[in-house]
Every structure is written in C-alpha cells, then in structure tokens.
Write a structure and sequence with these properties.
384 residues; single chain; globular; 80% helix; mainly alpha
C-alpha cells in the first residue's frame, strides 16, 4: 500500500469545511484583536477612559460595588483590630494605600492605567486632595478604635450638612427643599438607630470632630475633579496616593500607640492584614467611582444606608436584638433614603432629557439603483 491519502478521504467538502472553520477562527481572532486595540486606544486618552468608566460603572453599579466592599472591609477590619489584635489604625491605613499604589504601578506597567487629562487641574488641587485623604482615612480608623460604632455614625451624620454648606460656599451649589427634608429624615433616623451605642472618651470625641471636615472636603474634591476636570478614578488615585502615603507616615507617631515592632507577624495575622489591604484598595476605587458617578451627598447617604441595612439585616437574619427604638429609626432612615434616591433619579432624567439633542433626519443614502436612475433621468433631460 502507498501513502495514506487524506485528501481522498476528506474529499472536496471536507477541505471546504476545514477552510471555513479556519476562516471563522481567523475572523474571531481579528475581531478580538480589534476590540483589544480599541479598548487600548480608548485608555490612551482621558476622554476615552472617562467614557469607558461611565459606560461600565454607572451610578447603580458604582454604588453597589462600593456597598459590597464597604460591608466586607468592616467585617475584615473588625477581625484585624479585634481577634488579630492589630491596634495601629494609621499604620493599617498606610498598608492599604501602599498596596493600592503597588497595584496601580502594576496596572501602569501593563498599560492598563488610564492616562491623566490635559493639565487643566492645578497641582495644588491634587496635593490638597492627597493630604486631605490621609487625614480623612486615618482619622476615620482612629475614631473607630477609640469610639463605639454608634458614636462614629453620629459623627458621620454631621458630614451631610458640612458637605451641603461647603458645596454652597465653594461652588454656589444648592439643593431643593424636598432633598433637604429627605436628608433631615435620614439623619434623624440614623441618630435614633444608633443612639443606644454612644460610648466614647474625650480623645475619641476630639478625633471624631476633627474627622468631619476632612471627610466632607475629601468627598467634594473627589466628585468635583472627576465630573468637572474629566479625571477617571484610577488616574486620580495614581496621582494622589503617594501624597497620601507621605502624610500617613507623618501621622503615625502622633496617633498610633507604640509597640508596632512587637506585633506577631505570623502567617494568619499577615494574611488577615493583607486581605484588609486588598479590600482597602477596592474600597478606595469603588468610593472614587461612586463619587464620580453621583455626588458627595449621595455617597454619605450610601454610607448611612449601609449602617441601617446591617442593623435590620442582623435583626432579621442573625437574631440580634438592637431594640425597638433602633429598628424604628433604621426603618425611618431607609424611607428617607428612598425618597432622596427617587428625587435624584427624577432630576437625572430631567437633565438628560434637556441635554438630548434634536435628531435630524438621516439623509437617504444613494444606492446603485438610485445612481442609475439619476443618470438615466439626466440623459433623458439632455436628449430633450
């Protein structure tokens, strides 16, 4: 017998089938490559990167992402500062931002980090945001260490009117009377829900009060730079994180207790701290996305929503008993949040309908038949 003849076995139909499969695979590969190059080119411009962020991370996605990560990092930080015994809140925040900067550097090395917009933003604004972010994050963790969760939430209530007043003084931004009433209902409900857990000392109260203004200004700057200066969340994090790390190092000797070098860095403790740091990066990213997609006030309301959901969820699912008064406060706050959200959605729909341009009729494209008809008509006219 001679050589085995595959061509005769396959026949002409088999060869055509293989060629068609190869052609389909080639077209799929070209389409994937075009998609990759298109996404890469979009990230090369600040406008394209901003469009991608708005496309994939709208208000609902961004706030849901931030809500899930916030709940996860609360549970993880309770484990780290409680069971693990890592009682160094500023150094823990420093680890969070250091891991975030390493991950951002990795994204930049892979050309996955969106570029910064043209230099319309003053360097002083970026420096101020990085410094304020260090105080906002560091003082928040320190307040959680020295105060109860209830007192921490009471201090967070004061952030809402601080944001409204600051936005009015800085940008002449006003909100409607209905939104003011909804925010009052939300703040009152959260206050009633957490009034049973108000344990604090003088130092903790001073830290909580000092945290209010940096927290409000931090949210305002994050929201304003993304919405007005065309920054994306990751690009803004890349610019401001080194500044935040510098100020956190300066805050450590003042707010962290001694004994850091005596901490037991075994595998379990190190893993818990590392998980907290990764969640810290996701929290910073998701918070920036939420502030870019909504507003500073909406982000504060989201934090209060998280508190009420945890309170009501613990009562329904974990048989915890926060008390009838706290549950009523949580329900009232959730009702106020629903009204505030509906008012925001109504304003968003009205603004989008106003910005929608008038659609001009699409001109009819010329086909070969139309061209032949026009040429025939022209020849007939010339003949006449």
């Amino acid at each position: 017998m001679g050589w085995f003849d595959f061509d005769s076995l396959l026949g002409s139909y088999g060869r055509k089938f293989i060629k068609r499969k190869d052609s389909d695979a080639g077209e799929a590969g070209r389409a994937l490559e075009e998609l990759r190059s298109s996404l890469y080119n979009e990230l090369r411009t600040s406008e394209g990167a901003k469009r991608q962020q708005q496309r994939f991370c709208g208000p609902v996605v961004a706030m849901s992402f931030n809500f899930v990560v916030s709940v996860g990092i609360i549970l993880t930080n309770k484990l780290v500062m409680g069971k693990v015994g890592f009682n160094f809140p500023i150094f823990l925040t420093l680890i969070h931002y250091s891991i975030a900067w390493i991950l951002l550097a990795f994204f930049k090395a892979l050309s996955l980090l969106p570029v910064s917009p043209p230099s319309k933003t003053a360097p002083s604004s970026l420096f101020s945001l990085g410094a304020i972010m260090a105080f906002a994050s560091g003082l928040a963790n320190t307040s959680l260490k020295y105060n109860s969760v209830g007192f921490y939430q009471m201090a967070k209530i004061a952030v809402t009117p601080t944001i409204v007043l600051s936005e009015f003084l800085l940008f002449r931004k006003t909100i409607s009377f209905k939104k003011v009433l909804a925010l009052v209902v939300v703040s009152s409900g959260v206050a009633v829900a957490t009034v049973t857990d108000l344990e604090f000392n003088a130092f903790g109260a001073c830290i909580a009060i000092a945290w209010i203004i940096p927290s409000a200004v931090n949210k305002i700057l994050w929201s304003n730079l993304q919405q007005q200066a065309n920054w994306t969340a990751l690009a803004l994090m890349w610019k401001t994180t080194p500044i935040t790390i510098f100020f956190l190092v300066a805050l450590m000797p003042w707010l962290d207790p001694p004994g850091l070098l005596l901490f037991k860095w075994d595998l379990n403790n190190s893993t818990a701290v590392l998980i907290s740091a990764l969640l810290g990066f996701l929290l910073q990213w998701s918070g920036a996305l939420a502030l870019g997609a909504t507003s500073a006030t909406s982000h504060v309301v989201l934090g209060q929503f998280k508190t009420c959901v945890i309170l009501v969820g613990g009562y329904l699912l974990l048989d915890s008993d926060p008390g009838f008064v706290s549950l009523c406060g949580a329900v009232v706050a959730l009702g106020g949040m629903s009204v505030y959200t509906s008012l925001n959605l109504k304003v968003s729909k009205e603004s989008s309908s106003k910005q929608l341009p008038m659609q001009n009729p699409v001109p009819k494209q010329k086909t070969s038949e139309n061209v032949s008809e026009e040429s025939t008509e022209t020849k007939t006219t010339i003949a006449v």
